[in-house]
Amino acid sequence: MGSSILASFLTPPLCSPRLLSETSSLNPSSLFCAKKTLLSSSSFSSISLTLTTKSNFKSKSSSSSMAAVDKSKPDLQIFDTEEQLSVSLAKYTAELSDKFTKERVAFTVVLSGGSLIKSLRKLVESPYLDSIQWAKWHVFWVDERVVPKDHDDSNYKLAYDGFLSKVPIPPGQVYAINDALSAEGAADDYETCLKQLVKTKVVDLLPGSGFPKFDLMLLGMGPDGHVASLFPGHPLVNENQRWVTFIKDSPKPPPERITFTFPVINSSANIAMVVVGANKSGVVGKALGSDTSCDVLPVEMVSPADGATTWFLDKEAASKL
Ligand SMILES: O=C(O)[C@H](O)[C@@H](O)[C@H](O)[C@H](O)COP(=O)(O)O
After folding, report:
1. Total domain count for the chain?
2. N or C: which end of the chain has fewer CB within 10 A?
3. In the predicted model, what is the mean pLDDT of residues 37-46?
4. Is the pLDDT of residue 308 over 80?
5. Would residue 277 count as lying in a domain?
6. 302, part of any domain
7. Can you say whether the dihedral through the CA atoms of 196, 214, 39, 222 is positive or negative?
8. Measuring from atom 16 of ligand 1, which residue has the nearest CA?
9. 45 CA distance to ligand 1 centroid (A)?
10. 229-243, pLDDT tens digit by residue?
11. Is residue 119 very low, low, confident or very high in pLDDT (cuts 50, 70, 90)?
């Protein structure tokens, strides 16, 4: 399974991405600093606890419904166990699949690497294996390591082995990177592919921004607060023109990767932040708590312009909230 971007799309980019309206030329970190102050003094769209032991948590209400989500505020879902999280993540993904496959010719889903893939395991079970319209799924990667597709470090291999090989998504709708290219070449190639898919309306465009709007991004977060391959303190976090870029000095091995940029991430219709484990509780506490410092981590820059963010946390990851 897996399509080679190079094989499918040899045409040059059809257009250059435009700047994100009037705010795009500003440093995203400083933009978010002001925004975060607002977040800390307001509330979440909804907070849902699925816990048998709640003593570690501040009091929160407990209702969550896709229909009731206020897109300007994140929805926070906290689970007693990763098993419960995976059940809820499958339901959330299946509901979005149902919604978008009714509305559009395609359901565009972006995966990250890491532990996220394991947390998607309920999607390959009943009832979802039979009920989801897999034929309309188009699958992308928010970041990929520049290694052969059969290498143990490959995010494609991780997703293929743990998820994609178990569901009937047409192979031509799984957009792996061209692993014959350099990091720079693979990023260019992936961006060209996305532009072609926007032209054919498989991928939406966010009106007024010039950036692609994916239906769902399923993101993980590193213990340092990185998302995709956008790492704390790295200049790539401020990239605001490219759709896909590359890094050759990733602090998390392997060093060479390609990654979507923040304007693309933040053009998404839906973002799921899936975070599990005590080693991430400090960053979760900083990102979702009352910290208003201008020392902004990449995860704190996840802020879709016209989309909804849902956090899926286990109780260990949420223990500092
Ligand atoms: O290729 C990668 O390295 C990933 O896409 C990366 O961004 C990952 O999502 C986080 O590091 C979280 O990974 P874990 O969930 O395994 O901690």
Report:
1. 1
2. N
3. 53
4. yes
5. yes
6. yes
7. negative
8. 114
9. 26
10. 999 999 999 999 999
11. very high
Task: Tell me which of 252, 275, 312 to substitute to probe ligand 1's pocket, judged by most ligand atoms within 8 Å of the beta carbon.
Answer: 252
Q: Are strands 270-275 and 308-314 parallel, antiparallel or unpaired?
A: parallel
- 112 in any annotated domain: yes
What residue owns the CA closest to ligand 1's atom 13? 114
In a domain, 219, yes or no: yes
What CATH number did the domain enclosing 89 receive?
3.40.50.1360
Instruction: Quickly tell me which residue has 């340092």 as its tokens.
Output: 224
Mean pLDDT of the 154-172 span: 98
State whether ipTM is beyond 0.90: yes
The answer to whether residues 122 and 87 touch, using CB atoms and an 8 Å cutoff, is yes
Contact, 321 vs 311, CB < 8 A?
no
Cα–Cα distances in angstroms (integers) from residue 321 to residues 181, 192, 238, 298, in the given order: 43, 41, 28, 19
When comparing pLDDT for 157 and 70, which is higher? 157
Residue numbers of the domain that contains 149: 3-7+70-314
225 lines ligand 1 (CB under 6 A): no
Looking at residues 147-176, what average pLDDT do you find?
98
Question: Ligand 1 centre and the CA of 267: distance in Å?
Answer: 20
> Which protein residue has the closest C-alpha to ligand 1 atom 1?
113
